[in-house]
Design goal:
This protein is α+β, with helices and mostly antiparallel strands and 128 residues long. It is built from three helices and four strands; from the N terminus they run H-H-H-E-E-E-E. The chain has a single domain, classed as Beta-lactamase Inhibitory Protein, Chain:B, domain 1 (2-Layer Sandwich). The radius of gyration is 27 Å and the shape is elongated.
């Protein structure tokens, strides 16, 4: 009887090992998906923190006209949207908002001239 129990235990372990090997590829895909979701969340948290910094700096009048676009991007990260300006004086418009609030978010537009210098901004509070 003892031999039969050992035999069934060994068969169960072998079969479990086969199923683990069989699904290893799928398990690795799930692990990669979880890792990439962590990266996405980290990136969203960073973008949200930078947007909060923009709002605080605007309130405290720390954003200066004439700032070069490169310096601005180094301080506040990539915008949600970059658009070409519609006239001779505005070369590009950068939009910043909370990364996951598409409709109910404060929005700030920064206008850069054709020499890549900040010439103006507009802030639109959310309508909550």
């Amino acid at each position: 009887m003892f031999k039969i129990v050992i035999f069934y235990v060994l068969v169960a372990l072998c079969l479990e090992g086969c199923s683990t090997i069989k699904y290893t590829k799928q398990l690795l895909v799930l692990k990669d998906l979880a890792d990439s979701q962590k990266e996405i969340n980290k990136c969203l948290d960073e973008q949200e923190a930078l947007f909060k910094k923009i709002l605080v700096d605007l309130k405290n009048k720390k954003i200066e006209l004439g700032t070069l676009k490169e310096d601005f991007l180094n301080s506040y990260g990539k915008p949600v949207l970059i658009r070409k300006g519609s006239n001779f004086f505005v070369g590009e418009i950068l939009l910043y908002r909370y990364p996951q609030k598409y409709f109910n978010s404060d929005k700030v537009y920064f206008y850069f001239d054709r020499f890549q210098k900040l010439v103006d901004w507009e802030q639109f509070p959310s309508h909550n």
